[in-house]
Amino acid sequence: MMENEPERSSGALRDLRQRPGNQSCADCGAAEPDWVCVNLGVFVCQGCSLIHRSVFSLCGVKSVLQDSFEDSEIEFISSMGNEAAKAKYEQQVPPFYFRPSHTDCRILREQWIRAKYERQEFIHIERQEPYSAGYREGFLWKRGRDNGQFLSRKFILSEREGALKYFNKQDAREPKAIMRIETLNAAFQPAKIGNPCGLQITYLKDNSTRNIFVYHEDSKEMVDWFTAIRAARFHYQKVAFPGANDEDLVPRLTRNFTKEGFMQKTGPRHTEGFKKRWFTMDDRRLMYFKDPLDAYALGEVFIGSKENRYTVLSGLPPSTQGYHWKYGITIETPDRKFLFACETEAEQKDWIAAFQRVVNRPMMPQEYAVEAHFKHKP
What we know:
- This is Arf-GAP with dual PH domain-containing protein 1.
- The protein has 378 residues and is of the alpha+beta class.
- Helix content is 30%, strand content 25%.
- The protein has helices spanning 5-17, 46-54, 71-79, 81-89, 106-118, 129-132, 190-193, 219-240, 246-249, 345-360, 365-375, and strands at residues 35-37, 42-44, 61-63, 135-143, 150-158, 163-167, 177-180, 185-188, 199-205, 208-215, 259-265, 275-282, 285-289, 299-302, 311-314, 327-332, 337-342.
- The strands form three sheets. A seven-stranded antiparallel β-sheet has the order 7-6-5-4-10-9-8.
- Helix 1 runs parallel beside helix 3 (71-79).
- It starts with a helix and ends with a helix.
């Protein structure tokens, strides 16, 4: 009995998927990709296949399991595959360019796919100029600190000056804020900001964290800003750490927050009422805000390592007073105890795991200086 056409071609595609490189998505690395871009000859996951479909010049997506393939398509996919495509389309990816995984937001995955195949930025290096020139100027919508309105503001990123600046008025001579590249971070926060291109930029001012929230209607423009910030951070780190390898520097260019969410907290005497606050864990800094989109933290807690007498405990001391959520967490530092409460057991477990990962990690030499500054904060 003869195999029918879809079964035969599906079997051939499953065999091709077992080849080295084809067992994970060509664009985000997700395991066991079930889709093929027939005009590129690559295996991709369902999420990336949807992006390929939305990019008109890249469409031609088929299911490995359900669709039939022409002999010529199978032949092309066999001659190409993920490894050959990577060698072609990722020839000159700058070390600072963010390579998204399947857990990253859509804007990063879409612009990575467009940059590779549609604009071919990593074949034609001159097309990288928008984010690799060391200088970038333009307008972004910035959230007002007091009224929450987004207003158009001029931004300038200058590697030579070592800073990102923004101006409240188009003709203003002096910037409203100067953010040093040394302490700059950028993270996409579409859900938090309420915009698919929403970017949270943080920097240190007087050793306290400041947030600004921006977006641009054009996703390429927003990702170019993000990449330009990473490029500036990369070149700063190359100077600051001359002996370091690129692989050591790249993870330090930008970072997503370890965890964010609402908890309740009480004051230093533990007799004050518990208040609901938005918490952000950024490396060893635990910051708390009245609102998720506040520019300034109400307070910051430094979380060191277990070698330095920092411990994380489930629950609250028996003497704890006042109404609070059921699931408590106690963080003991060399100076005092911090008491927090979570609404659900799942949240409590997630926060404890996040704190424990930080406490279990030995402190770096530069982190001792940060800890000392926290101890001397007024």
